[in-house]
Design brief:
Number of strands: 10
Radius of gyration: 21 Å
Bound molecules: flavin mononucleotide
Strand content: 5-15%
CATH topology of the largest domain: TIM Barrel
Shape: globular
Helix content: 40-55%
Order of helices and strands: EEEHEHHEHEHHEHEHEHEHHHHHH
CATH class of the largest domain: Alpha Beta
Strand order of the largest sheet: 3-10-9-8-7-6-5-4
Number of domains: 2
Largest sheet: 8 strands, parallel
CATH superfamily of the largest domain: Aldolase class I
Number of helices: 15
Length: 338
């Protein structure tokens, strides 16, 4: 797949995920075979004000590449400046504009999906970003529209193409739908028919077979996954294997999941330190241990760990059956049997 002059290898892209797709998660995803990663969405205002937390979220290393930095904002001039700073200081493979975020904090400042209500502003924001980005390709990520009654994705696709964007990613739901119902893949097909630039389909991919199905049903050039990768970098390997051979890999065992969680925790420590890393690791741990024996008892023990080292020890004890929870669980099972 091409995005402007950038060539992206076969496979699927890891979606931008605020609060999730930070460096450790991106490293693991690329290692598992993701074709591309994005940063979390970054405030254009934060960039031009040179805010430390904003800049911290923009940094990356070659082992997370190819990578796009995703910006949001509602002022074309600010977006232009922010894009120029992004290229000069970070030089990502592309800059993506977030036109899809439904979160109140972003929408109330007219960012994210709110812009889908003002197509003239949408065009100015893309033009500004393209001007600031210079030779770096600019892409956009959208939902189908503000609400079901007003689908604008085809119009926005045409606007993006005219304004110099090189690809459009479509999460095939309106802003109003949030994450409810099914994504409407037919809108991805319609977008593909409406524009010549690259179209990346997104929404509800859960299995390797879904990737093929989305490509066949919509004709999209690329596929992006979000929630299916959360606590599950294995999905990239499974998808690549299926695309290459047509065979399905077995799901990872509990030991493999724990190995991945421990590696993830080490990367969190390197990036954010023992204590901040441990706090930030909690949500991922919840995903990794889903379905484990005694998961509901294991979860609070892991969440109570204040350092990455403690998390590691909890897993070690769990693997060696040293945690009380397993005894509790055994009692419960014994009670049920008797
Ligand atoms: C926790 C979370 C954070 C997200 N953050 C962003 C974001 O920063 N930028 C963005 O464009 N989309 C964001 N999204 C939307 C995803 O990129 C993606 O479009 C959506 O999850 C649908 O894909 P999926 O069905 O594969 O999860 C987020 C979604 C989730 C669940």
């Amino acid at each position: 797949m091409n995005i402007g002059n950038l060539i992206v290898k076969d496979g699927v892209l890891l979606a931008p995920l605020a609060g999730v797709s930070n460096r450790p998660f991106r490293v693991l995803s690329i290692k598992a075979g993701a074709a591309f990663t994005y940063t979390e969405m970054i405030s254009s205002e934060g960039i031009i004000r040179n805010q430390d937390r904003t800049k911290e979220m923009m940094g990356f290393k070659p082992d997370e590449q190819p990578i796009g930095i995703q910006l949001f904002g509602s002022d074309p001039k600010v977006m232009e400046q922010a894009a120029a700073i992004t290229v000069k200081e970070f030089n990502p493979d592309l800059i993506d504009i977030n036109f899809g975020c439904p979160v109140k904090k972003v929408v109330s400042k007219n960012g994210g999906s709110a812009i889908l209500r003002d197509l003239a502003l949408t065009e100015d924001i893309i033009k500004g970003t393209v001007a600031g980005a210079g030779d770096t390709p600019v892409t956009i990520k959208i939902r189908t529209g503000w609400d079901e009654a007003n689908p604008v994705f085809e119009k926005v696709g045409e606007i993006a193409q005219r304004a110099g964007a090189k690809a459009v990613s479509l999460h095939a739901r309106s802003r109003a739908k949030g994450f409810s119902g099914n994504a409407d893949w037919n809108s991805i097909k319609k977008l593909k028919q409406a524009v010549d630039i690259t179209v990346i389909g997104n929404g509800d991919i859960k299995t390797p077979q879904d990737v093929i199905r989305m490509k066949e049903e919509t004709g999209c050039d690329g596929v992006m996954i979000g929630r299916a990768a959360m606590g599950n970098p294995f999905i990239f390997q499974q998808i690549n294997h299926y695309l290459k051979t047509g065979d399905l890999l077995e799901n990872p065992s509990m030991r493999e999941k724990i190995e991945m969680a421990r590696l993830h925790a080490q990367l969190m420590k390197e990036q954010f330190g023992e204590e901040r890393g441990a706090k930030m690791m909690r949500r991922y741990l919840g995903w990794y241990i889903k379905g484990f024996r005694g998961a509901s008892e294991l979860r609070p023990i892991l969440f109570g760990a204040n350092t990455i080292q403690d998390i590691d020890s909890v897993f070690e004890d769990y693997l060696n059956n040293k945690l009380d929870i397993l005894a509790h669980e055994k009692n419960n099972i014994d009670k049920k049997i008797n």
